[in-house]
């Protein structure tokens, strides 16, 4: 898990396109009448004309609250942005009788809602007020289609081959009720109330067209909690994401996004998301000594540096041996096995959340990783890496894959369009 790092295209929590005051329409803060001060202006004729109310002025947002990600663009939001502090993953199934027309109407509603909420505005109707006072807080909403969506909408001929079911893996203990789904929505933000507000709005927008199949909640470290931006840690205490592909890489687009000339054409500039709920067996993991934990991962726990030496970004020396002739980075170390150059160049952009769903009667925590990875083709990204992990990863003893999903995430919507429009109206 910890060996492919998130691209830090910006410091999480900083504005992408300016503060919310530049957003289209009325901001959520102003619309809901919060955080502003209403002034009174004296009339010109010595007060004879009475008083006029000045426009409400919202107090400046903090750096976290003012962060804004654009909804419209070449790619959907929530893929290349930095890790967000909290998130929700939710899958829906279309209801009986709902088909292509109902699905198109739903995606249109969701796209309008996403655009407004990501701009820091209120939901288009029946806003709950949950996010009152808050700015956009780097909110992102991302939409995808599962394999079953195409049969339900009569679009089976448009279903990509890349959505073929993932193979079975020995570490799988999958709960089918918490796997797959016709539609998938990823919500992320740097404020928990903003994220929940979006989740509630999306659920309400589903109306009678779709019902929730499963929903999962996750979190990451809050932006600004460390002295400087750094790779996140997972619940095992390991730096998680050191070797992630970065947008500056020359082959980044090729590895992560379907090309504009790709097939099917409606997936141009889109990506495929593999979603896995991976439970960490923390009681067993925490019994290991620090040295044993580092041997399992292949990196130092303190700073993420490879056991072969250097710092976090130092290339791993896979041939280095100790005084006894043993490899310094064990053959079964997770970081060794997941290296792209050991998997035919297979790479994926990992953008996970940690989760904690309570403590069992025996004191065992139900906690781990909501693993989300992005790639142009899962058969060349996730699958070969997971197959190799399945055959000899030392970490497998301490994790369990409990849910799984694979979703086609189309390219971003242009102004005036909705996500998936090229599929549903093509």
TrEMBL record:
GO molecular function, a single term: heme binding
Keywords annotated in UniProt: Heme, Iron, Lyase, Metal-binding, Oxidoreductase, Peroxidase, Signal
Cytoplasm as UniProt keyword: no
Listed EC numbers: 1.11.1.-
Disordered, as annotated region: 1-22, 299-320
Cofactor(s) needed by this chain: heme b
Locations listed in the record: Cell envelope
Cofactor note: Binds 1 heme b (iron(II)-protoporphyrin IX) group non-covalently per subunit.
GO process terms (BP): iron import into cell
Primary residence: other
Top-rank taxon: Bacteria
Occurrences of domain Dyp-type peroxidase C-terminal (ranges): 231-413
Catalyzed reactions per annotation: heme b + 2 H(+) = protoporphyrin IX + Fe(2+)
Compositionally biased region (Polar residues): 1-12
Keyword GTP-binding: no
Top enzyme class: oxidoreductase
An example Gene Ontology CC term for this record: cell envelope
Residues covered by the Dyp-type peroxidase N-terminal domain: 76-220
Family: Belongs to the DyP-type peroxidase family.
Function in brief: Involved in the recovery of exogenous heme iron. Extracts iron from heme while preserving the protoporphyrin ring intact.
This protein's name: Deferrochelatase
Organism: Streptomyces dangxiongensis
Taxonomy of the source species: Bacteria, Bacillati, Actinomycetota, Actinomycetes, Kitasatosporales
């Amino acid at each position: 898990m910890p060996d492919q790092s998130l691209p830090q295209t910006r410091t999480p929590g900083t504005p992408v396109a300016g503060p919310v005051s530049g957003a289209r329409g009325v901001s959520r803060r102003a619309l809901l009448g919060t955080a502003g001060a209403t002034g009174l202006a004296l009339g010109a004729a010595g007060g004879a004309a009475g008083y006029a109310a000045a426009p409400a002025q919202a107090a400046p947002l903090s750096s976290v609250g003012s962060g804004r990600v654009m909804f419209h663009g070449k790619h959907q939001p929530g893929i290349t942005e930095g890790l967000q502090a909290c998130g929700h993953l939710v899958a829906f199934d279309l209801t009986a009788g709902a088909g292509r027309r109902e699905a198109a109407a739903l995606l249109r509603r969701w796209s309008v809602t996403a655009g407004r909420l990501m701009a820091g505005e209120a939901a288009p109707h029946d806003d709950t007020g949950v996010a009152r006072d808050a700015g956009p807080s780097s909110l992102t909403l991302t939409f995808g289609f599962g394999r079953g969506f195409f049969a339900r909408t009569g679009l089976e001929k448009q279903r990509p081959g890349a959505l073929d079911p993932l193979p079975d893996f020995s570490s799988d203990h999958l709960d089918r009720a918490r796997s797959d789904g016709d539609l998938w929505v990823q919500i992320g933000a740097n404020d928990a109330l903003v994220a929940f507000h979006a989740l509630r709005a999306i659920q309400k927008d589903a109306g009678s067209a779709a019902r929730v199949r499963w929903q999962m909640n996750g979190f990451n470290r809050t932006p600004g909690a460390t002295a400087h931006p750094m790779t996140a840690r997972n619940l095992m205490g390991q730096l998680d994401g050191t070797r992630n592909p970065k947008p500056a890489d020359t082959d980044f687009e090729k590895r992560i996004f379907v090309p504009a000339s790709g097939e099917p054409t409606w997936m141009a500039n889109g990506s495929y998301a593999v979603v896995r709920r991976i439970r960490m067996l923390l009681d067993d993991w925490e019994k290991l000594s620090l040295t044993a934990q580092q041997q399992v991962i292949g990196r130092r726990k303190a700073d993420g540096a490879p056991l072969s030496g250097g710092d976090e970004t130092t290339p791993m020396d896979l041939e280095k041996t100790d005084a006894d002739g043993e490899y310094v980075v064990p053959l079964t170390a997770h970081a060794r096995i997941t290296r792209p150059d050991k998997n035919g160049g297979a790479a994926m952009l990992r953008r996970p959340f940690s989760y904690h769903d309570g403590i069992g009667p025996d004191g065992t925590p139900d906690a781990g990783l909501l693993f989300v990875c992005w790639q142009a083709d899962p058969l060349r990204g996730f699958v070969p890496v997971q197959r190799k992990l399945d055959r000899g990863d030392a970490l497998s003893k301490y994790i369990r894959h409990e849910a799984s999903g694979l979703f086609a995430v189309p390219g971003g919507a242009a102004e005036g369009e909705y996500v998936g429009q090229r599929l549903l109206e093509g």
